[in-house]
Amino acid sequence: MKKQFILGTLLSILALGLCACEKEGDDNSIKITDVQNNSVGIVFPRSDAFDLTITGGDGQYEVVSDDEDVVTAEITESGTLSLTAVTTGETTVTVTDKSGNSYSLTVNVHYAEDTMIVQQVYAWAEGEDLSVEDKNAIEETMLASIPVEPGGKYEFTYTLENYAGGDVAIYPKSGGDAITGTFLRQIMTDKESKTYMNFEITIDEEVRNLLLSQDGKFPETRMSFTPRTYYLFEDFTESLKTGYPELEKAYSVQAVTAH
């Protein structure tokens, strides 16, 4: 009897396991690809819709956005979930089908951001007839004009479409208060077909142009950092040439790591 009881119990467990496997195999719940933890982020602003692929369910999908002031949602003719960002914020989008299946997706609409932490600053001036005294004076002037010391940072928040510009917060030192302003970003190409980004920063009506390069040899900076290091150059040649006619090139350089 004891042997039969054990055998009967084992058969019951196996039967339950088979039922569970069959149920799992028959799972036809709604799923959305390319999302993590039932959530997705959308960079704002953007002119096109953000599309996601829906699988599972019976294919007769409907969708509702809890807050259409943040995100509007629709199911396209091809069965794709199409999300359109209206403004920054967070909401829930729920996909259902005629069979009662549902899927809730958290959508976070946010601005893109770039943080650049300054690692080192450097000034570089040259001129064939430039005296050592004038060269040192020029470089000291440029160094004094750099608004951020090592450990400080720039935070760029892109509020314009296509990453064309937005708001900037400049932290002169680590842990200090920020100086705020606006910026415009432009992609530039030099005569050697090298691509750079120009950040035109405006703070209290003062405009500064910082050229971002991944190449520390433009000009030679004699600095070497990790592969994620970039360089912010500011050209002072024209503004300082009046006082120093022999000056040919003058740049301040900030080595920054991007985060």
Can you put this structure into words, describing what you see?
With 259 residues, this protein is α+β, with helices and mostly antiparallel strands. The chain is built from 3 helices and 15 strands. The chain has helices spanning 2-25, 132-145, 237-241; strands at residues 31-32, 39-44, 50-55, 61-65, 71-75, 80-85, 89-97, 102-126, 153-158, 165-171, 179-189, 195-203, 206-213, 229-235, 249-258. The strands form 2 sheets. It has an 8-stranded antiparallel beta barrel. The protein has a 4-stranded antiparallel β-sheet with strand order 1-3-6-5, with no helix packed on it. It starts with a helix and ends with a strand.
Outline: elongated
Tell me the fraction of residues in β-strands, as a range.
over 45%
Cα(first) to Cα(last) distance is 70 Å
Instruction: State the share of residues found in helices, binned by percent.
Output: 10-25%
The helix/strand series, from N terminus to C terminus, equals: HEEEEEEEEHEEEEEEHE
Largest sheet: 8 strands, antiparallel, barrel
Number of strands: 15
Strand order of the largest sheet: 8-9-10-11-12-13-14-15
Radius of gyration over alpha carbons?
29 Å
